[in-house]
């Protein structure tokens, strides 16, 4: 069509082009899978286009009212957003039984999943993702055994694990964050066990010089393992992915009556959007009915 790759200051022209783009995404998606994107995904893509033009062209994109009508139609026709199921402590124990800890790769995966679970990590903060490694991915130098105050100590004297993140996708200024989680006393599910397995795996794989804590473990490998376990126990594999780890940690804290502010700070949410993550479990509602009479 000989269109410029840039949009203009003409609101009607922008509406035509953005409308065609949104319609294409809704009908076909963007990865050749012939599966259309949902409304929320299209909104994110449009926001990226607007930001890119503002950043590199210096224009604030405007659009005509008919574009709003189109987007409302796409929103109405988009199916409900399917949330991933949380990784529960029971799921983690089943995973632990199925893994072979004589295999260093299994040990690496187990340690990574536990670290992600206890620290409510986003997948890009500790795993290799499709687009590559982010510069804020958890470094080996920023994870250590600590005392109850978060000070580095030898493993024998440790009662906690401390990690430091150089940033996050919602941390545009790179402020970073340090978090400490203490030993649970559980022989399987414990942040100290997580770091121990990771360090042992790095040594066995001869990757102690790799700067990133989880070496080359990918989000795809973790997700594939979850789906494999889900199929074994008879639940829908599509309901489990790497995001299930962060949801699982937040859900466990909610069920354990953790303070909402503590969940927000631990997960490094910048707003109250964290409230959309946890699922309400039976344990979390225990005693509520007695308060209603």
From TrEMBL:
GO BP annotation list: DNA integration; DNA recombination
Domain of life: Eukaryota
Record keywords: DNA recombination
Protein name per its UniProtKB record: Tyr recombinase domain-containing protein
InterPro entries: DNA_brk_join_enz, Integrase-like_cat_sf, Phage_Integrase-like_Recomb
Gene3D superfamilies attached to this UniProt entry: Intergrase catalytic core (1.10.443.10)
Recorded GO MF terms: DNA binding
Signal peptide: none
This protein's record includes keyword tRNA-binding: no
Organism listed in the record: Phytophthora fragariae
């Amino acid at each position: 069509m000989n269109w410029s790759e840039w949009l203009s200051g003409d609101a009607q022209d922008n509406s035509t082009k953005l409308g065609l783009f949104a319609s294409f995404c809704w009908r076909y998606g963007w990865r050749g899978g012939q599966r259309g994107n949902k409304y929320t995904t299209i909104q994110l893509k449009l926001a990226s286009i607007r930001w890119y033009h503002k950043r590199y062209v210096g224009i604030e994109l405007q659009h005509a009212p008919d574009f709003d009508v189109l987007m409302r139609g796409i929103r109405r026709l988009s199916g409900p957003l399917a949330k991933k199921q949380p990784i529960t402590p029971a799921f983690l124990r089943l995973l632990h039984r199925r893994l072979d800890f004589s295999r260093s790769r299994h040990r690496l995966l187990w340690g990574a999943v536990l670290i992600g679970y206890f620290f409510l990590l986003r997948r890009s903060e500790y795993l290799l993702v499709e687009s590559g490694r982010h510069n804020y991915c958890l470094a080996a130098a920023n994870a250590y055994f600590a005392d109850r105050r978060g000070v580095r100590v030898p493993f024998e004297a440790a009662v906690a694990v401390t990690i430091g993140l150089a940033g996050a996708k919602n941390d545009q200024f790179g402020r970073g964050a340090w978090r400490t989680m203490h030993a649970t006393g559980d022989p399987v599910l414990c942040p100290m066990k997580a770091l121990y397995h990771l360090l042992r795996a790095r040594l066995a794989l001869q990757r102690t010089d790799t700067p990133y804590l989880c070496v080359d473990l990918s989000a795809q490998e973790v997700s594939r393992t979850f789906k494999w376990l889900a199929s074994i126990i008879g639940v829908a594999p599509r309901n489990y992915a790497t995001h299930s780890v962060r949801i699982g940690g937040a859900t466990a804290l909610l069920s354990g009556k953790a303070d909402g502010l503590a969940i927000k700070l631990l997960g490094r949410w910048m707003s109250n959007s964290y409230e959309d993550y946890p699922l309400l479990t039976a344990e979390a509602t225990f005693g509520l009915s007695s308060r209603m009479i």
